[in-house]
Amino acid sequence: MADEVALFGQIALLLLAVACAYTDLATRTIPDRFTIGAVVVGIATNAYLGGAGFGRLASIGWILQPRTLTPSLADALLGLALGGGTLMALYAAGGMGMGDVKMMGAVGALGGVRFCLHALVWTSLAGAVMALLLLARQGRLRAGLAGTARWFSRRGPGPGGAPPGEQTEAARQTIPYGVAIAVGPVVAWSVEVWSVGGGGA
Question: How many domains is the chain built from?
Answer without folding.
Answer: 1
